[in-house]
C-alpha cells in the first residue's frame, strides 16, 4: 500500500533524494508554468556577490524568501523567481587588490585598468558553484539560468537610461559638497553606505585655545586689559582638522562668559582667561575651580578675530582675509563641549563656509595624508613634521605639539560613533570636493508617502529605522572614483561649459558616428569614446556609479527596460514581496525605494507603471544572527557555524524550521548545530514517528482509504481532530497572509506534537491495534490519513523536503491522479462547517485538567502508572462542567483515577500563598516591593485569587498610595490539604487524592509490569503490531496481581495467550524485577496468518 518508512531516518539522505526527484521531473519549472488563476505574485531577489562563500546569514534570507514563494504558488499565483548577481563595486575590487597585493589606486593604474577589470569580472563568479550548491541544498527554488548580471551591457544600458531620465528632470547633477570619502579607496560613499559603517570608537577629545585679539576684546567691552591673553576655548574630536580651521562658531542667543581658571598643566597658581558658554563652565573647569569675570551673549563675539594654531595647505588663489573670525550658527550645541565650535569648511563645514564667504584650507589630501605645508604657526619654513602621515595617525603628534606650546586646555579621549568604510574598515573623511548627486531631497515628501504604502514586517520599521532615514534624507552621492562598475554616462566638453548625459548605446553611437554595438561599456574602453559637438570635444567624466544604484535598478534593468520587455515590466512591478537583513534598510531597500519614487513621480519616466508607486508592497526585515550564547559570530572567537555542517548532519528542513519557529524574523537569532538538532528531535522526529505509525498499521490492515467516511458519522475523537485540523488551516493561512512565519510554524508544531501525536495517536492506538477491520477502525485510518496529508501541504512551504516525501508516499499511492508533487498541489482551505466549537471547548477543558492532574502527580511524586482513587475538579463555568462530564471516561483514563468529583465553581478547596512577580512589579514599585511582600503575608488572599481567575486588576494600598496590579503581577502557590496534591491555574483546579488502598497498589504493580513487558518486546526486535504468545514465571503478590488483571495485560502487550509457565520454544527469554520480585519472561512471535514463527 505504502512504501515502508525507516525508523531511524537520516534526514539529509532522503532530502538529497527529493532534490534528485525535483530535478528529474522539472518540478520547479512546472511550479512556475502551472495554472495561475490568481495572477502574478512578484518577487525581487536581492543580488548577492558570488566572490565569497555563502554563510549562515545567506541561508536565513533564502529560507524566508522561499517560504512565501512556495506558499503563493500553492495558492494559485504565478511566481517567477528570477535570480540575480551583484557583480560590480568596491567589494569586488578589494578582493582582487588583496590577491594582487595592491594597497592604493596608483597600483591599479600602473597595472592597467583593463587587466584589473578583467580580473574583477573573473572573480565575481569564483564561488558561484558554492552559491548554487547551497541554494539547491536548502530547497530555495531560484531561476539562476536566466539570472540578471549587473556587469552585462544590457543591464548597464538600462542604468544609463534611468540616469538620463533623472538628468532630464534636473535630478542628476554635479556639485561641490562635503561628501564622505574613503581615503584608502580614494572614492566617495553614499550616505546609505556610510550608515552601515558606524562604530563606537575611542577618539581624542581636546580643548584647543585660540588667542583672541585683545584690542578687539577691549573695544567690544568684553574685558578691560589688553596685556593678558584671552582664549576662545573650543572643543573637537578631530585634531587633524585644526590646520584647516578658518572660523569659530558660537550661538548668538546663548549666554557666554569670560572665565579665569588655572591651566590644566603647569603653574596652577596663575590663571588664564577663557571664553566659552556659561552653561558649560562647571563641566569644563570643575565646580569651584574658576571665577566668572563677565557674561554676555554669543552675539557679542561675532566678528571677533583670533590667531590660528596651525598652518594648512592654501589652494592657489585662496583669499584668507575673511578667515579666523567668530561667526554665528544656530546649530551650535551648548550642552557638550564648550559652545565654541571649530570650523573647517574643507572637512564638513562647507555650508557654513559658503554662508560667511570663508576661505578654504586643507590639512589632508584625498588619500588621507597630511600635506607638507601643515605645521605650527610659528614653525620655521620648510616641510612640516606631519608630512605624509595618515590623518588619524597624525592626531597624536599634533596634540603633543599643541600641549608643548600650552595651546590645549585639556587633552583626553571620548567614546563616540565614527563612520568607517563598511567594506574594509577604513576611517572616512567628510571631504569637500566635486561629486555627482541624485536630488532625492526633491521628492522627500513622496519618499515618505510611498513608505506609508508599504507593509513592513515588523511594522515599526516603517516609522522607525526606515522612516527616520527618509525624514533625514539628503541627496544621494552617486559618483565613485573607481574602476569596476557601471560608468556614469556623462560627457563633458574640454572647457567644462557643457555636459551631455547619454541614455543608450544607440545615442552614444549617433554622437560618435561609430558602430558601438560590440563595445564593452566598462572602463577603460568607455573612457576612450570621445566625440565632437558644437565645435567642442567631449570626454566622459571619470566616474563609476554607486553599486546600490545598480541593485536598486534591478526591477527595470533585469528586463533591459525600456529597450525590451515593456509589457513584462508592467506585470512585474511593484514587487509583492522582498526580504533581506535589517542593514538593507539603508542599502537595497532604500535604493529600490528611492529610484521607484523618483521614476514614478509626476513627470517620471516609467510610462507603463502607475504614478507614485513604491517598488515593493511587503518587506520582511531580518535580524542578525549570533551564536548560541548570544555573542556575535567571528572567526577570531571560533564561534562561526558552517551551514554545510548543519545541512550534512541535521538537514535543510530542520535548519529552516528552526529559523522560522525560534523567534520572529526581525529578532536577533541564536544559532548553533545543537539548537537545530533540538528542532529535529522535538518536532520533525515526532512528525516522522506519527507518519511511520500510520504507514506501519495501514500496510498491515490495507484499509480502503478511497472509501468515503462522512465526518459527521465518525466518532467524537475523530471529529475533534477534524475540527482542530480545520482551525489549523485557518490559522496558518491567516498568519502567512500576515507574513508571520513564526506564528504559522509554531501553530503547526504545536498541533503535530500536542494534538496529533501526544493526544490523538496516543489515545487511539488501540483502534489501530485491534484485529477486526470495522467501521471504527476505517474512520481512525481516514482521519489520521487525511490529517497527515493536510499537515504535509501546510508544511510544504516551510519544510519542503519531508512534506514532499510524505505526500509522495501517502497521496500518490492512493490517488495517483493527484499532482505529482506537493509543491504543485493547491493550498488547503478550511471548512467552517467542520469546526465544532463546543467539542473543541470541551476537549480543551479536558486537556487542561489532564495537564494539571499530571502536574499534581509530579508534585506528589506519584507515577501515572499508579492508579488513584479520586480527582477533585473545579472549572470556570457550568458549560465546562457539562463538557467535562461527557468526556469523564477519557479524563479517568488519562489520569488513571477511579472517580471524578466536581467542585462548585465558588468552592475554595485549597489555601493560597500569594507572592509578587518580582521581574514585573519591581520596575513599577521599586522601593515599595518589600512593603508589598509584607502586605501579601497579612491580607486575605481570596480576593486576589478571585480577581486573578476573572482577569481583573487588584488594588493594593501601600503608604497611602494605590497601585493597580494586573493578574500577572502575582505568583500563586497552592497549599494542598492533607492527603491531596492540588494544582490551580487560571481558575482551573485539579486535586488528586494520593492515598493508596491495597487494590490501587496492586493495579499499579500491574501497570509497571506492562511497561517492562513493552520494553521486552522492543528488545526482542518486535514491531509495534506484532502479536505474541507470552510466558510469565513469578510468585507471591506479583503473580496474584497479574492473574487478577490478566485481560488488561494481554490487550496492552498484544498477547494472544499468556501462560504462567515458560514457553520452551520461545524466541526471546529474559528476567526483570518488579518491586524486588523476579519475573521471567519468554515470548514467541505469531505470524500474520496466526501461526507461530
List keywords for this structure.
single chain, alpha+beta, Rossmann fold, Isoleucyl-tRNA Synthetase, domain 2, four-stranded antiparallel beta sheet, 42 strands
Task: Write the topology of this structure.
Layout: H1 11-24, H2 27-33, E1 39-40, H3 56-74, E2 77-78, E3 82-85, H4 90-100, H5 105-111, H6 113-123, H7 128-137, E4 143-149, H8 153-168, E5 172-182, E6 187-188, H9 191-194, E7 198-211, H10 214-219, E8 230-233, E9 247-250, E10 255-261, E11 272-277, H11 281-285, E12 291-297, E13 310-311, E14 325-328, E15 341-343, H12 350-355, E16 375-376, H13 391-404, E17 408-419, E18 429-438, H14 444-451, E19 455-457, H15 460-463, H16 465-471, E20 476-477, E21 479-480, E22 490-493, E23 499-501, H17 505-512, E24 531-533, E25 536-540, E26 544-545, H18 547-552, H19 554-557, H20 566-570, E27 578-581, H21 588-600, E28 618-622, E29 625-627, H22 643-649, H23 652-662, E30 669-671, H24 673-701, H25 716-737, H26 741-769, H27 775-795, H28 800-814, H29 837-860, E31 870-874, H30 878-886, H31 888-895, E32 900-902, E33 911-916, H32 918-925, H33 929-938, H34 942-950, E34 954-958, E35 961-965, E36 970-975, E37 980-985, E38 988-993, H35 998-1019, E39 1027-1033, H36 1036-1044, H37 1046-1052, E40 1055-1059, E41 1068-1074, E42 1077-1086
Parallel strand pairs: 1-2, 3-4, 8-11, 9-14, 19-28, 27-28, 29-30, 31-32, 39-40
Antiparallel strand pairs: 5-6, 5-18, 7-8, 7-17, 9-15, 10-11, 10-12, 13-16, 18-20, 21-26, 22-23, 22-25, 24-25, 31-38, 33-36, 34-35, 37-38, 39-42, 41-42
Amino acid at each position: 500500500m505504502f512504501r515502508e518508512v525507516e525508523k531511524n531516518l537520516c534526514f539529509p539522505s532522503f532530502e538529497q533524494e527529493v532534490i534528485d526527484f525535483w530535478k528529474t521531473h522539472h518540478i520547479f519549472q512546472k511550479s512556475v508554468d502551472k495554472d495561475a488563476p490568481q495572477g502574478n505574485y512578484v518577487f525581487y531577489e536581492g543580488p548577492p556577490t558570488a566572490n565569497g562563500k555563502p554563510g549562515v546569514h545567506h541561508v536565513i534570507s533564502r529560507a524566508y524568501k522561499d517560504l512565501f514563494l512556495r506558499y503563493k504558488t500553492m495558492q494559485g499565483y504565478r511566481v517567477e523567481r528570477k535570480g540575480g548577481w551583484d557583480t560590480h563595486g568596491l567589494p569586488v575590487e578589494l578582493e582582487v587588490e588583496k590577491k594582487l597585493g595592491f594597497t592604493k589606486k596608483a597600483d591599479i593604474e600602473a597595472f592597467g585598468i583593463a587587466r584589473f577589470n578583467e580580473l574583477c569580472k573573473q572573480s565575481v563568479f569564483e564561488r558561484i558553484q558554492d552559491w548554487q550548491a547551497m541554494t539547491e541544498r536548502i530547497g530555495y527554488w531560484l531561476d539562476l539560468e536566466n539570472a540578471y548580471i549587473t556587469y552585462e551591457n544590457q543591464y548597464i544600458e538600462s542604468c544609463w537610461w534611468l540616469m538620463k531620465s533623472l538628468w532630464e528632470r534636473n535630478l542628476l547633477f554635479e556639485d561641490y559638497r562635503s561628501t564622505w570619502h574613503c581615503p584608502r579607496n580614494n572614492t566617495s560613499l553614499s550616505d546609505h553606505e556610510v550608515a552601515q559603517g558606524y562604530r563606537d570608537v575611542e577618539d581624542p577629545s581636546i580643548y584647543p585655545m585660540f588667542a583672541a585679539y585683545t584690542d578687539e576684546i577691549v573695544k567690544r567691552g568684553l574685558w578691560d586689559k589688553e596685556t593678558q591673553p584671552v582664549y576662545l576655548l573650543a572643543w573637537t574630536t578631530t585634531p587633524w582638522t585644526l590646520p584647516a580651521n578658518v572660523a569659530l562658531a558660537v550661538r548668538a542667543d546663548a549666554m557666554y562668559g569670560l572665565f579665569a581658571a588655572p591651566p590644566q598643566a603647569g603653574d596652577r597658581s596663575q590663571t588664564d582667561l577663557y571664553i566659552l558658554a556659561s552653561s558649560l563652565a562647571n563641566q569644563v573647569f570643575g565646580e569651584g575651580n574658576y571665577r566668572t569675570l563677565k557674561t554676555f551673549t554669543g552675539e557679542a563675539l561675532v566678528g571677533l578675530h583670533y590667531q590660528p594654531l596651525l598652518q594648512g595647505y592654501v589652494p592657489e588663489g585662496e583669499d584668507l582675509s575673511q578667515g579666523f573670525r567668530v561667526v554665528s550658527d544656530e546649530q551650535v550645541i551648548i550642552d557638550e563641549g564648550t559652545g565654541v565650535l571649530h570650523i573647517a569648511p574643507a572637512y564638513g563645514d562647507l555650508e557654513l563656509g559658503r554662508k560667511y564667504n570663508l576661505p578654504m584650507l586643507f590639512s589632508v589630501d584625498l588619500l588621507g595624508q597630511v600635506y607638507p605645508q601643515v605645521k605650527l604657526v610659528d614653525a620655521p619654513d620648510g616641510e612640516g613634521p606631519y608630512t605624509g602621515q595618515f590623518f588619524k595617525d597624525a592626531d597624536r603628534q599634533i596634540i603633543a605639539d599643541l600641549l608643548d606650546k600650552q595651546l590645549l586646555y585639556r587633552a583626553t579621549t571620548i567614546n563616540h560613533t565614527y563612520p568607517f568604510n563598511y567594506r574594509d574598515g577604513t576611517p572616512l573623511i567628510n571631504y569637500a570636493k566635486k561629486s555627482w548627486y541624485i536630488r532625492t531631497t526633491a521628492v522627500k515628501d513622496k519618499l515618505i508617502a510611498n513608505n506609508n504604502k508599504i507593509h513592513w514586517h515588523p511594522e515599526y520599521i516603517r516609522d522607525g529605522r526606515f522612516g527616520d532615514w527618509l525624514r533625514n534624507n539628503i541627496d544621494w552621492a552617486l559618483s565613485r572614483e573607481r574602476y569596476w562598475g557601471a560608468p556614469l554616462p556623462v560627457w563633458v566638453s574640454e572647457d567644462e561649459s557643457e555636459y551631455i548625459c547619454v541614455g543608450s548605446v544607440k545615442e552614444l553611437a549617433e554622437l560618435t558616428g561609430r558602430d558601438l554595438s560590440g563595445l564593452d561599456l566598462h572602463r577603460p574602453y568607455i573612457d576612450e569614446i570621445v566625440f565632437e559637438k558644437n565645435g567642442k570635444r567631449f570626454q566622459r567624466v571619470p566616474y563609476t556609479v554607486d553599486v546600490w544604484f545598480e541593485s536598486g535598478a534591478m526591477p527595470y534593468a533585469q528586463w533591459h527596460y525600456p529597450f525590451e520587455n515593456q509589457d513584462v515590466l508592467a506585470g512585474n512591478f511593484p514587487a509583492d514581496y522582498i526580504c533581506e537583513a535589517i542593514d538593507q534598510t539603508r542599502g537595497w531597500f532604500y535604493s529600490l525605494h528611492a529610484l521607484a519614487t523618483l521614476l514614478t513621480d509626476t513627470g517620471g519616466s516609467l510610462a507603463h507603471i502607475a504614478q507614485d508607486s513604491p517598488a515593493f508592497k511587503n518587506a520582511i526585515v531580518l535580524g542578525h544572527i549570533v551564536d548560541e550564547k548570544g555573542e556575535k559570530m567571528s572567526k577570531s572567537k571560533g564561534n562561526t557555524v558552517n551551514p554545510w555542517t548543519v545541512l550534512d548532519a541535521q538537514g535543510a528542513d530542520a535548519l529552516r524550521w528552526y529559523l522560522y519557529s525560534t523567534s520572529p524574523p526581525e529578532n536577533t537569532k541564536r544559532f548553533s548545530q545543537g539548537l537545530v538538532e533540538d528542532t529535529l528531535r522535538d518536532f520533525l522526529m515526532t512528525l516522522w514517528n506519527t507518519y511511520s505509525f500510520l504507514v506501519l498499521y495501514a500496510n498491515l490492515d490495507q484499509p480502503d482509504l478511497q472509501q468515503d467516511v462522512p465526518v459527521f458519522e465518525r466518532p467524537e475523537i475523530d471529529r475533534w481532530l477534524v475540527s482542530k485540523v480545520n482551525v489549523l488551516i485557518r490559522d496558518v493561512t491567516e498568519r502567512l497572509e500576515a507574513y508571520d512565519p513564526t506564528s504559522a510554524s509554531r501553530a503547526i508544531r504545536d498541533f503535530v506534537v500536542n494534538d496529533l501525536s501526544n493526544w490523538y495517536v496516543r489515545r487511539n492506538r488501540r483502534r489501530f491495534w485491534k484485529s477486526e477491520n470495522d467501521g471504527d477502525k476505517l474512520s481512525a485510518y481516514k482521519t489520521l490519513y487525511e490529517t497527515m496529508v493536510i499537515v504535509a501541504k501546510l508544511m510544504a512551504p516551510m519544510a519542503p523536503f519531508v512534506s514532499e516525501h510524505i505526500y509522495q508516499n501517502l497521496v500518490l499511492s492512493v490517488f495517483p491522479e493527484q499532482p505529482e508533487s506537493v509543491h504543485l498541489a493547491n493550498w488547503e482551505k478550511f471548512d467552517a462547517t467542520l469546526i465544532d466549537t463546543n467539542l473543541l471547548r470541551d476537549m480543551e477543558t479536558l486537556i487542561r485538567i489532564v495537564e494539571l492532574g499530571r502536574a499534581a502527580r509530579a508534585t506528589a511524586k506519584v507515577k501515572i502508572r499508579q492508579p488513584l482513587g479520586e480527582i477533585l475538579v473545579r472549572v470556570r463555568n457550568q458549560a465546562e462542567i457539562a463538557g467535562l462530564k461527557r468526556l469523564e471516561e477519557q479524563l479517568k483514563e488519562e489520569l488513571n483515577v477511579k472517580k471524578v468529583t466536581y467542585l462548585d465553581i465558588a468552592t475554595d478547596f485549597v489555601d493560597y500563598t500569594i507572592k509578587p512577580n518580582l521581574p514585573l512589579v519591581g520596575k513599577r514599585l521599586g522601593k515599595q516591593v518589600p512593603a508589598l511582600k509584607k502586605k501579601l503575608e497579612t491580607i486575605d488572599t481570596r480576593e486576589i485569587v478571585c480577581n486573578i481567575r476573572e482577569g481583573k486588576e487588584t488594588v493594593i494600598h501601600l503608604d497611602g498610595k494605590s497601585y493597580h496590579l494586573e493578574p500577572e503581577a502575582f505568583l500563586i502557590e497552592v497549599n494542598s490539604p492533607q492527603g491531596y496534591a492540588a494544582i490551580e491555574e487560571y481558575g482551573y483546579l485539579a486535586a488528586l487524592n494520593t492515598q493508596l488502598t491495597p487494590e490501587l497498589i496492586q493495579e499499579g504493580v500491574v501497570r509497571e509490569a506492562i511497561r517492562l513487558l513493552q520494553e521486552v518486546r522492543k528488545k526482542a526486535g518486535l514491531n509495534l503490531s506484532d502479536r505474541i504468545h507470552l510466558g510469565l514465571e513469578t510468585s507471591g503478590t506479583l503473580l496474584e496481581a497479574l492473574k487478577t488483571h490478566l485481560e488488561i495485560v494481554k490487550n496492552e502487550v498484544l498477547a494472544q495467550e499468556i501462560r504462567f509457565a515458560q514457553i520452551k520454544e520461545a524466541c526471546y527469554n529474559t528476567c526483570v524485577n518488579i518491586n524486588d520480585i523476579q519475573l521471567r519472561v519468554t515470548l514467541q512471535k505469531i505470524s500474520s496468518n496466526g501461526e507461530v514463527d
